[in-house]
Design goal:
The complex is a heterodimer of chains A (805) and B (392). Chain A is α+β, with helices and mostly antiparallel strands and 805 residues long. Chain A has 16 helices and 44 strands. The radius of gyration of chain A is 28 Å and the shape is globular. Chain B is mainly beta and 392 residues long. Chain B contains four helices and 27 strands. Classes of the chains: A alpha+beta (805), B mainly beta (392). At the A-B interface, helix 3, helix 4 and strand 22 of A face helix 1, strand 5 and strand 6 of B.
Chain lengths: 805, 392
């Protein structure tokens, strides 16, 4: 699989090259365009030429579950200026069943572009070029009405078509053609839609909390009434993101309760409007809101309080804003207060409803989350619900901390981080992919939701003279509405410019919606396995590793599509044939797969028939593709990169033991590191291992791995570097790994865990994200056991996985 | 050191101000004629001009860029306002703030503000005009109310007494000219008002400053003409029939001598966020009094009449500057007359060694705590420094 995109140097500035399309005789010439497809998650800038090998034949191709919305795009590159173009959708037909997919389920958009005049200063290595980025989805009919459906010579113009698959749609492959008209000349564009036998729920399982600043709406819409706020809330919910507050006036207790009743079945979560009393949540007002909702819950027999998760801006970002004490104080009191309110509910003189008791409601109130925008930190002992930035959970050690801490954790997005982590920045070339991959990784990492700071920053926030100032700007003309980031805080565009009663949606919001659907798709696989008494974690993680390491995303659009296809195939095999991949373990040569299937089924692995019963397969070294088939169903997937063992103790690989392990660099002056080659039988293994023995005072058990030849292994195509250790202790050990460049600059890479009394393969993660231009050459790695003193560890092997070009 | 007879001129008004450059009439970009002594501040010719330098505050509602010539008085467009506000929010009336450009911020020569308003409703409609003063920290001038007759144009022409306004405000640094609108919670009513052609008219000369004359040891007696301008009211929770009002009182039953300041304090309704009504005395008055010239055991004193039958709490806040060096003292007021007195040492000792009175006290604020049940009337009078003659 290759990372492909645009040929940056070959800029074709459309405006500069634009020629009049009126011929010499004054008669308008017909426009002419090169028409092709690219992945929906690829960004085609309006003014930059697209590499030929990125272009695919013009078509709209969809792969979706029932109830899911998916989008696809074609691109028109004008050879001659186009004065008017349009695309009309049509019904599709399933050849197998004769069923129809109605054209009303398609939504056609003219892609609008926004100019990025300076890059996001927080953006990282894969920051895009300056230019006109696709970001605004304008309905085609509106574009025609406003005369925007034209293309200057040399410019690219995308047409995005969303397919909304009804949950009642029959499974099958539907085909047909859409009609593309370029200056009146019709072209048929083939369309295919495959509907899979799984359903994505209307209300996402993955919760979210997105803020809509009502006061900002007037600067784009000329309207910040409650009605307009309601319209924005509804659109956000349509895109499977949940507004922070439901549309009602603050202080309107009964009105808010009515909104809870109205929206309860449409949202994954909602918050109670905040009010403070000094440094605390105003318990009296919180009680008033809750009691009004309780009344409705007991009337209707629906526990409307089961979806509450609160967020208090007073303690926003406590670790970076100096609010640690305040956050602890407020959180502690919040827990006490909700307990007291729960008791008040239990004591209410209102009869229980047959389907909803006061006890049910009281328990929900006790469990109302207080989301705090911080990562787990010992300074915040009173906080129980963390929203951590995307850089957190990157290391295995931190993920384990969350999993074992018995706290709920969400993502938190606000301007940072940078590519290769997921971002919502307009000029992050890969973030339509990375945003979607977040949905996948969230399910695997146990992340329950996502809090995003703002969606309608229709005025520029400028920092000057020690203050933040609001400057009225046109959000269609200025991508950087917050200092240093393009698009962050702006997921909508005001529809007023086009006479629309509500917002336009950004491509980035569409990707977020799809990520939340992908979360449910992954979850559906897990559920299908659970229904068969199996665990899907191993196969899901294996597929995931082709898209991300930690929380750094390296997937391309093609990788993402392959992973989605793999999920559908795993689902089909599990649901239709009860065939499961229950375990995958890395070996020196590749991977061992454990496949479970019923007696009597004819299952093949890479074309070879398997015997009945549970079976273990070995994927051969240097092979990165597997195909497991049963009847008409098959799972085929290829892991990214080529895995190669670069060091074993008794092998003659890239290093010898003496070269690789440098005993002189144990950093503690009181420690001595002894390195000796031992028989693996000492630790129950075959072959040999290197025993690292630490002696002397002090806790620091540190060693270094590196050599001249190691530096030749470490280069920018390395996708992963893994080391296998045996931890002979009864404790789980955290290993901190740092890299040292040839200039002696050291920087952290990751933290990994060594399981007690076990062999563990630890992964350094996505090394493509290292700033190779800065560091040039990685000379060695430092390993340090954190917070524990050990007598010895065993080192067994090292492997690298390299991007295949 | 004591100064017995103080006549203090308002110094800021004597500053040499940059001259307003008005050299002959001009024509605006929309083709509107602008006279020599005028400046067109807003004519709303484009949608962008309706948003670019305009702030819409307090859950404003809606505006539209109007091109219906029926509601245009200059150029080709105007702005249509459908103000709403929010019944439940702790906010004042919806208002529209037109930010002034750098070369417009000095209003020391401002003579009047004019604007064309069309009230498209079937009822009279009240608007207000005020200025926001300052850059990072802003204060508001009192709101001047104007009634617009129903279904007709009103040429609003509000003459400004800049000399008097300068007693409380730095009119060389005006942030924006603002218009308030009625709240309209029933959005179906759509109380539409059109605005066009907002202009400033200037005088040729800077007006003569008003002298701030004080009696011996006086802080504020409310008896002098200029003293109706040395305080401002602040209140953050406006609800229907729920407002904090200040007015000068002539009823001798409620004054110690001459006039007093009447404070009408609404009761805090259920569910409302208390707006902390307060009266704030101008920095220029505080500077004119110059409390540093008194001794530590001299006393700051004032009388306040509580016309209710319940106890009311208030906070007396001394400020070094906004949000810096605040010292607050809480007092309970019984029914009838109450004399609040405290030594200047007491005021100073509250703040770790910093001498508030000699080191730039800039503001005095009297803030009322929430009252329940019926509204309360308080009368403030005879604010002075009582000098104890036995001091060395």
């Amino acid at each position: 699989m290759k990372k492909s995109w645009i040929k940056i140097p070959s800029l074709l500035l459309g405006g500069a090259l634009c020629l009049s399309y009126v011929g010499c005789n004054g008669v308008a010439e017909k426009g002419e365009a090169d028409v092709y497809s690219v992945y929906i998650t690829d960004k085609v800038l309006q003014d930059i030429a697209v590499e030929e090998d990125v272009k695919q034949p013009a078509s709209f191709s969809y792969m979706a579950a029932k109830g899911e919305s998916e989008a696809a795009q074609i691109v028109l590159t004008a050879k001659k200026a186009v004065s008017a173009y349009t695309l009309t959708a049509a019904d599709l037909t399933c050849a197998e069943t004769g069923e129809t997919f109605a054209k009303e389920n398609f939504e056609v958009f003219h892609q609008k572009y926004i100019e990025v005049k300076s890059n996001s200063s927080t953006a990282g290595g894969e920051d895009g070029p300056l230019g006109w980025y696709p970001d605004i989805l304008l309905p085609m009919e509106t574009a025609k009405a406003y005369g925007e459906n034209k293309i200057k010579k040399g410019q690219n113009q995308s047409i995005v078509v969303q397919a909304h698959v009804p949950s009642t749609q029959e499974v099958g492959t539907y085909t047909g053609t859409f009609s593309l008209y370029i200056d009146g000349v019709k072209t048929d564009v083939p369309v295919s839609l495959r509907v899979y036998p799984t359903t994505i729920s209307e209300v996402p399982t993955f919760d979210s909390l997105f803020l809509i600043a009502r006061e900002e709406l007037i600067y784009g819409e000329g309207d910040n009434s409650l009605e307009m706020y309601t319209t924005y809330c509804d659109k956000l919910i349509e895109y499977k993101c949940m507004p922070y507050l439901l549309p009602a006036s603050t202080g309107d207790y009964q009105g808010y309760a009515q909104q809870v009743k109205k929206y309860y079945h449409k949202v994954s979560g909602y918050s109670i409007p905040w009010a403070y009393s000094g440094d605390y949540v105003d318990k009296e007002k919180l009680t008033k809101y809750l009691m009004e909702i309780v009344k409705l819950a007991l009337e209707d027999g629906v526990n409307y309080l089961s979806k509450v998760r609160n967020y208090y801006p007073l303690i926003d970002e406590p670790l970076s804003q100096g609010k640690v004490a305040l956050a602890n104080k407020l959180s502690k009191q919040y827990t006490i207060d909700v307990g007291m309110i729960a008791d008040e509910i239990r004591a209410l003189d209102i009869p229980d409803h047959a389907t909803c008791s006061k006890e049910d409601i009281a328990k929900s109130v006790e469990q109302m989350k207080n989301l705090v925008t911080a990562h787990i930190d010992p300074q915040l002992p009173e906080v129980q619900h963390f929203c951590a930035g995307w850089t957190h959970l990157d290391s295995e050690a931190e993920r384990q901390t969350y999993l074992e801490s018995d706290v709920d954790y969400w993502w938190y997005g606000c301007n940072s981080p940078t590519n290769p982590y997921p971002t919502f920045h307009t000029d992050d070339m890969n973030n339509l992919v990375s945003t979607r991959v977040m949905g996948y990784m969230s399910e695997l990492y146990g992340v329950q939701g996502e809090l995003f700071w703002e969606t309608v920053l229709y005025r520029e926030t400028s920092f000057a003279g020690g203050y933040f100032h609001k400057i009225n700007t046109d959000v269609y003309e200025q991508a950087m509405q917050y200092p240093g980031t393009n698009g962050d805080g702006v997921l909508f565009y005001p529809g007023a410019r086009y006479g629309l009663d509500g917002p336009l949606v950004s491509n980035r919001l569409l990707a977020i919606r799809d990520a939340h659907d992908d979360f449910d798709l992954v979850r559906n696989v897990r559920i299908a396995y659970e229904q068969g008494g199996k665990d899907a974690s191993a196969v899901l993680a294996w597929v995931g590793q082709s898209m991300y390491n930690g929380t750094k995303v390296h997937a391309t659009s093609e990788d993402l599509l392959s992973a989605r296809k793999a999920l559908f195939e795993l689902l089909s095999l599990a649901q239709e044939k009860q065939v499961y991949i229950t375990d995958i373990t890395p070996t020196a040569q590749g991977y061992d797969f454990v496949v479970s299937y019923p007696d009597g089924e004819n299952v093949t692995y890479n074309g070879k028939a398997l015997t009945n019963g549970a079976c273990q397969l070995v994927l051969q070294a240097n092979t990165n593709a597997v195909k497991i088939a049963c009847g008409e169903y098959a799972f085929s997937y290829a892991v990214e990169g080529k895995k190669e063992v670069i060091y074993t103790v008794d092998g003659q690989q890239a290093f010898t033991a003496g070269q690789a392990l440098d005993a002189d660099v144990a950093t503690s002056p009181n420690k001595t590191l002894t390195v000796e080659t031992v028989e693996g039988t000492e630790i129950g293994l075959t072959g040999k291992a290197i025993k690292l023995s630490f002696s002397g005072e002090g806790q620091e058990c540190v060693w270094n791995f590196g050599s001249e030849s190691f530096a030749t292994v470490m280069h920018k195509r390395i996708r992963d570097l893994s080391f296998t250790f045996y931890n002979p202790t009864d404790k789980r050990l955290t290993l901190a790994i740092r890299a040292n460049n040839a200039q002696g600059i050291s920087f952290p890479v990751t933290e990994v865990l060594l399981q007690p009394n076990a062999v563990t393969e630890v992964h350094l993660g996505d090394l493509t994200s290292i700033k190779w231009d800065l560091h040039r050459r990685i000379a060695s790695l430092d390993f340090a056991v954190k917070g524990e003193t050990v007598d010895c560890l065993y080192f067994i092997s090292a492997s690298k996985t390299e991007v295949v070009k | 050191m004591r100064v017995r007879n103080i006549v203090c001129a308002f110094l800021s008004a004597l500053l040499i101000l940059p001259c307003f450059a008005a050299c002959g009439g001009t024509t605006s970009s929309s083709g509107t004629d602008v006279a020599e002594n005028e400046k067109l501040i807003a004519d709303f010719e484009t949608f962008r001009s309706c948003t670019e330098n305009v702030v819409y505050a307090n859950h404003f509602g809606r505006f539209e860029h109007n091109t219906d010539k029926t509601y245009v008085t200059s150029g080709n467009a105007s702005i249509k306002i459908n103000a709403m506000g929010d019944r439940y929010m702790s906010s004042a009336q919806p208002n529209m703030q037109i930010r002034l450009q750098d070369d417009e911020r000095d209003l020391t020569k401002l003579k009047r503000v004019t604007a064309d308003f069309y009230n498209a409703t079937d009822e009279d409609y009240e608007i207000g005009i005020f200025f926001k003063i300052g850059t990072s920290v802003q204060s508001d001038t009192p709101v001047t109310k104007i009634l617009l007759e129903k279904n007709k144009w009103t040429k609003v022409s509000k003459q400004m007494d800049i000399a008097v306004m300068s007693l409380c405000n730095d009119m060389t640094n005006v942030n924006s000219v603002c218009f308030t609108f009625e709240t309209c919670y029933d959005t179906a009513q759509k109380k539409d008002v059109y605005i066009d052609n907002v202009r400033f008219e200037y005088s040729d000369e800077t007006p003569q400053s008003v002298e701030m004359t004080l009696d011996e040891n006086e802080f504020c007696s409310f008896d002098k003409l200029y003293q109706k301008e040395v305080f401002t009211e602040n209140f953050y929770a406006v609800m229907p029939d729920y407002g904090f009002e200040l007015s000068l009182n002539n009823d001798l039953r409620y004054s110690k001598k001459g006039k007093s300041l009447k404070m009408y304090v609404p009761a805090c309704p259920d569910g409302a966020t208390w707006g902390w009504p307060n009266v704030q005395f101008a920095e220029n008055l505080v500077k004119a009094v110059n409390m540093s010239r008194f001794d530590g055991n001299d006393e700051f004193s004032f009388w306040i009449y509580n016309a209710s039958d319940k106890n009311v709490y208030l906070s007396l806040d001394f400020w070094r500057s906004y949000n810096k060096g605040k010292r607050a003292f809480t007092h309970m007021l019984y029914a009838g007359w109450n004399n609040i007195r405290m030594t200047l040492d007491k005021i100073n000792e509250e703040d770790g060694g910093l001498d508030l009175l000699t080191d730039g006290m800039t503001m005095l604020r009297i803030c009322v705590f929430p009252v329940s049940g019926d509204p309360v009337e308080l009368y403030l009078d005879s604010m002075e420094i009582i000098v104890h003659e036995n001091q060395a």
